[in-house]
Amino acid sequence: EGQLVESGGGLVQAGGSLRLSCATSGFVFEDYAIGWFRRAPGKDREPVSSISNEDGYTFYADSVKGRFTISTDSSTKTVYLQMDSLKPEDTAVYYCVADRDVLPTIEGYDYDYWGQGTQVTVSS
What we know:
The protein is mainly β. It has strands at 3-7, 10-13, 18-25, 33-39, 46-52, 58-60, 68-73, 78-83, 92-99, 113-114, 118-123.
């Protein structure tokens, strides 16, 4: 059974940076696509960024494009989300997600594995 554990969330001022980590286990890392979703207060869960471990293809939501960068470390089976130029509207619980068949880019799909989430709060 696959497991995902997020870390790195916290409180930061607008314009600052955070790096989230997603530690994975229980599945063949190279066979999966990994992504990040978030749920902001009063809003539905939405996709943020994803990466294919097969070819390195990346997806970014329009709202974070140019500010966030997703990357992986196959030696440690860890996925990172570098978040720069943070805005108050980035405040949310951020979740790591993994799927063997599809890049996690839409809400509503039955992805294979989810993490427990980590809180990111951006103050103005």
